[in-house]
């Protein structure tokens, strides 16, 4: 059984700390990053670029940013120049509306779309080291900037569907994202503190994974943890969930690359 499933199963069976249903969303004054729920040692690891293992992915992303690729023989820098300038604030505004598809696209999707259309290169697989590295490098340029979801009316219906997905009970354990992260944040689940599910640090290095991973990987892990069938990587539902989660996180600073237990 996956670790998340074991934690949830033990929590439900033995009632350690008790999953208590508390109505309502998180008050703005109580909004916190997952960083605030970590141990002092893990917080120090994230804050020190020489100790943060996620920085290896950022450095690889910088190299890929400057490497020509595909039939066009272009690099990301060929179009966008110095990422420290051109990509500043970009991650804080994603997911965003993509005109050709007529729906939201996340930052990794935008990176891969540019790769396919502008560089004429093969798409990078979901959760591949290269796609995570490029996404981490772009997102890193917004570190410290507040999450600022786009005020685009075309996103409203997709964001609302993300909210419905967040609040919908799923799986054999009949739990929703809101059950843990709105109603029981700060409590303990199998010894771990329940955070508020703000996606401010992705791609991030998770100590449990011993590698960098995407928000989609984390969302899928949670679905497996409540014994539900996870959405496939790249599924529109995962992008809509992220769209809603970023709205919830509005005003919190981007941390990429984060470190989490």
Secondary-structure element pattern, one letter each? HHHHHEEHHHHEEEEHHE
Q: Helix/strand/pairing class, anyone?
A: mainly alpha
Low-confidence stretches: 1-23
CATH class of the largest domain: Mainly Alpha
Q: CATH superfamily name of the largest domain?
A: Cytochrome c-like domain
Radius of gyration over C-alpha positions, nearest whole angstrom: 18 Å
Total beta strands:
7
Distance between the termini: 19 Å
Q: Strand order of the main beta sheet, please?
A: 6-5-7
Short description:
The protein has 11 helices and 7 strands. By secondary structure, the protein is mostly helical. The protein has 2 domains: 160 residues, Cytochrome Bc1 Complex, Chain D, domain 2; 86 residues, Orthogonal Bundle (Cytochrome Bc1 Complex, Chain D, domain 2).
Polypeptide structure, described:
- By secondary structure, the chain is mainly alpha-helical.
- It has two domains: 3-49 and 148-260, Cytochrome c-like domain (Cytochrome Bc1 Complex, Chain D, domain 2, Orthogonal Bundle), CATH 1.10.760; 55-140, Cytochrome c-like domain (Cytochrome Bc1 Complex, Chain D, domain 2).
- The protein contains eleven helices and seven strands.
- The chain has helices at 3-14, 40-47, 55-65, 76-80, 83-86, 107-117, 129-140, 156-167, 177-181, 215-225, 236-248; strands at 96-98, 103-105, 188-189, 192-193, 204-206, 211-213, 259-260.
- Strands 6-5-7 form a three-stranded mixed sheet. A two-stranded antiparallel ribbon has the order 1-2. The protein has a two-stranded antiparallel ribbon with strand order 3-4.
- A hairpin with a 4-residue loop joins β1 (96-98) and β2.
- The chain is globular.
- Residues 1-23 have low confidence and may be disordered.
């Amino acid at each position: 059984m996956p670790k998340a499933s074991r934690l949830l199963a033990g929590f439900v069976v033995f009632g350690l700390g008790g999953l208590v249903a508390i109505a309502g969303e998180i008050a703005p004054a109580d909004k916190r990053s997952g960083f605030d729920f970590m141990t002092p040692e893990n917080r120090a690891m994230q804050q020190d670029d020489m100790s943060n293992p996620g920085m290896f992915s950022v450095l690889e992303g910088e190299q890929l940013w400057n490497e020509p690729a595909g039939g066009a023989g272009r690099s990301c820098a060929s179009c966008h120049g110095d990422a420290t300038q051109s990509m500043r604030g970009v991650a804080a505004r994603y997911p965003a509306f993509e005109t050709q598809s007529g729906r939201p696209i996340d930052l990794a999707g935008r990176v891969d779309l540019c790769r396919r259309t502008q560089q004429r290169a093969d798409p990078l697989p979901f959760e591949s080291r290269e796609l995570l590295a490029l996404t981490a490098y772009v997102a890193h340029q917004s570190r410290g900037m507040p999450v600022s979801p786009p005020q685009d009316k075309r996103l409203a219906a997709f964001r609302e569907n993300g909210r419905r997905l967040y609040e919908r009970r799923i799986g054999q354990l009949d739990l929703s994202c809101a059950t843990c992260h709105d109603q029981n944040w700060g409590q303990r689940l199998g010894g771990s503190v329940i955070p508020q599910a703000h996606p401010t640090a992705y791609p991030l290095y998770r100590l449990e994974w011993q590698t960098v991973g995407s928000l989609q990987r984390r969302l899928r892990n949670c679905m497996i943890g409540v014994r539900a069938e996870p959405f496939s990587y790249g599924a529109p539902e995962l992008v809509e969930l992220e769209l809603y989660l970023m709205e919830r996180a509005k005003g919190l600073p981007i941390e990429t690359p984060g470190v989490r237990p």
